Amino acid sequence: MIGTSFNEGWQARPKVNPFAELSGPSVPFRPVTLPHDALIGQRRTAPDGQVTMEGGAGAYFPGGVFEYRKVFPVPEGYRGKRIFIEFEGVYRDATVFINGTYAGQRPFGYSHFHIDADRYLRFGQDNEIRVEARSHRDSRWYTGAGIYRDTWLFVGDVVRIQPDGPRISTPDVDRERAVVEVVTTVENDSIEIRTVEVVTEIRSASGAVVATDTAELTVLPGEPASARQRLYVREPSLWGPDTPALYDCDVTLKDGSGEVDRAAAVFGVRTLQLDPEHGLRLNGRTVELRGACVHHDNGVLGAATFARAEERRVEILKAAGFNAIRMSHHPMSKAMLDACDRLGMLVVDEAFDVWTSGKSEFDYSLSFPEWWERDIEAMVAKDFNHPSVILYSIGNEIPETGSPAGAAWGRRLADTVRSLDPTRYVTNAVNGLLAVLSELGALGQRAPEQAPDDGAGINTLMSDVGDAMNAISASELVTERTAESFAVLDVAGMNYAEARYALDRGLFPNRIILGTETFPTRIDGNWRLVRQHGHVIGDFTWTGWDYLGEVGIGRPQYLTPGGPKPSPTAPYPYLLAGCGDIDITGHRRPASYYREIVFGLRSEPYIAVRRPEHHGRTFAGSPWAWSDSVSSWSWPGFEGAPVAVEVYSDAHEVELLVNGRSLGRRPVGEEHRFRTEFETVHEPGELLAVAYRDGHETGRGSLRSATTPVRLTAAADRRAIRATGGDLAYVTLTLTDEHGTPHTGADRPVSVEVSGAGVLLGFGSADPSTEERFDATERRTYEGRALAVLRPTARGEIRLTATAPGCEAADVVVTAE
């Protein structure tokens, strides 16, 4: 079945009690175009004026119940057809009504699902579909709400290919040929036995047919049947991160009267191998996973999942040196999977953040026992044809993993995944501390030689969350309690437990480990472990891209004599977690360049300057918090003030010059954690870092102070975009001097006006703490930058005009084709 977009013509509003509307509508519907986040436009407040973990988890956005409706015609010619409506994602507890009648539901907010619609439709008339969605204290991060992913209308005959289409695998591959197995499931809702021809063609990227096969298939009424075809592609182009070659597969059903149905899929040819010596091998070569954990929100767009937004994130993450994404902690969108296939990004797709033990008052644990299997089936059906997907994760930091019952649940989930897709590996992101949380008291009572950190008590361990997680994870208690949960997996996913890497080489010689979640501040040591140990296949930092919610876990904090202790949750109006290598606008922060150097992908030194207003204070940020540094030498008002300059490099030593005056050379490189610091005073002009290896210069990096006057510039990521298909234009607004140097210390409000064939979809900055809204037309820049996102509404030119006090207006034109 081929789907057509069902995104247009919707309306949305907060749901009201129907009894309150007996005298007429009390809350009007407003037009929306899907994908749509119903929560991002709501007013944020601190609950009862207090800072709470629950409020901070969702970025202080309120919960709510929202309803969507759409009126659409159904032609008389559709009578006798099978009609399905697909929702790629509705957050959360979606309930669907067609013409006032209940048609289906889905509690999980991240599964795609189909509504069997034809039985409720009125042919030759207009029909109404309504969707209700709820979001209320049911997650540990910002989820958004509503129909936040694409919707599709599928129309087919009673004999048809299932909506998820053919499933394609490559079980046998060498240089000469690849065996491509295509399994096409056909359904028959007629009352007759039907025999059809399944015609399958495989095309290369150039469009040439490289393999074809025809098979007869008899389908009994009400009993789906599958045609399993083995095709052979000669001299296959292999899919990999550096060469993401893709093939098209077209399947057509035919009978004596002609074509009955058709379906299309994209796939790649590649092999996977796994062992403790070589680690993970892709197409026969070991690949170390340079991983980024990523939440699903799209920053200024909230949870709305537009195809271009997902593609842009993958592009930027790959350019920053990552070769893998772990979708945290839910199944990845179809649009991002497509982008990962095209661009060559490996994927760990994750099923759940909770099983039977809840982490929030109203989370998915309430539905898990009844719905988990259908949601696993949906994830695998979505991922099966995508060569980018190499691992399924069945959970994240599941408390049950430290118990026999939890291990049994893990085996049940892992076996279900394998039964649906035996071509990939299964992991589970286990946090050793949470797995034994109920027994931490017993851990503290153990003999000193059995307790972590030479007998340190739990209170001492908890003074540093990073050391605590590591020490407890390496304890004998965790070894015992998690042994069975790890044994049911192909890859032992470990969150914040690098202390186990070398330990488990001796304790569990067949165990293969993946750092499924690690502190960004420890990447140098973690990456050394990945390189040293064949059984450790990679590292996934928390996080690659900053996100809404879990506010302030990565914010810089400082000790104040007599002041409050550092807190894991920031007060309102904090908005962001603040721990991403890349901020929510797509701008790379200093941690991103440091990581690139650690990975061995950058030879030039990188300079970051700590904010001079905090000079001399004691840093007390969490292990998720990078230093409070900015790649800038523009600090108006701090001329002559002391300042600390960080330089990152893989060289042996680095020299720093301020306006040509040398501050000397300092050792750097791996033995010094790839970083060094210089103390100086701020002098406007130029900072220059020169890297040396064995006395020879290997690279330079510099920063220049911005000069006056301040200019406002507008630059689109692309001058031409598609008018359909979820494409967007991203316009970066920057305050600069005449040479293009960013004015990071001259922030001011910027207003935008959009005209022509598009609308302003979102507008914001990376300010971690603000009451400004993403649906406004004025935002203050942060560190000299803001981001506007444009959505095309028709073919033609879209013009954005930006203005700021003291600056000439800036224009940019994008053509929607």
UniProtKB/TrEMBL annotation:
One of its GO terms (biological process) is carbohydrate metabolic process. Residues 170-270 form the Glycoside hydrolase family 2 immunoglobulin-like beta-sandwich domain. InterPro entries: Beta-gal/glucu_dom_sf, DUF4982, Galactose-bd-like_sf, GH, GH2_Domain-Containing, Glyco_hydro2_dom5, Glyco_hydro_2, Glyco_hydro_2_cat. Residues 640-698 form the DUF4982 domain. The keyword Hydrolase applies. The keyword Hydrolase applies. Residues 712-812 form the Glycoside hydrolase family domain. This is Glycoside Hydrolase family protein. It comes from Streptomyces chromofuscus.
